[in-house]
Amino acid sequence: MTDTPAQSATLKIAVATKGHGQVDLHFGHADDFHVYEVDKDGIRFVEKRIVEHYCQGGFGDEDKREVIIRALSDCAGLLVAKVGDGPKKRLQDAGIDASDAFAYGATEESLRAWYTARSGA
User: Fold this and answer.
1) How far from 105 is each of 23, 58, 72, CA to CA, in Å?
2) Domain limits of the chain?
3) pLDDT tens-digit readout, 55-80
4) Which of 9, 40, 1 is nearest to 121 (CA)?
5) Burial class (CB in 10 A: 0-12, 13-18, 19+), 59
6) Half-sphere exposure of 51 (CA within 13 A, CB side)
7) How far apart are CA 46 and CA 34, in angstroms?
8) Whole-model pTM?
9) What are the φ/ψ torsions at residue 13 (nearest 5 degrees)?
């Protein structure tokens, strides 16, 4: 039996984290995102992407949000502790599946679960 393209694909997934091995940061408060490559063989940290957070006292700066979306444009997914409906829709429109379903979960377990659900692996 051969792998389907989804099962053999390597996907990049960004994580909003304070850096303690958890998905524990709100999308709008992130100053950086940890980017991982995930495939059927495992999880590899790729890089930290520095951004300027866009949430300013409850209001978002649309220009900053667009810069963040461009910075994550090669990612299939984004795991966050929380994301508002507007940013989530804009990320989705850009092809990035933003999920808060793994809020406060361990990073690697969350990445594996997201990848499995997405790829069927």
Assistant:
1) 6, 25, 21
2) 5-119
3) 554 444 556 778 899 999 999 999 99
4) 40
5) exposed
6) 29
7) 8
8) 0.86
9) -130, 130
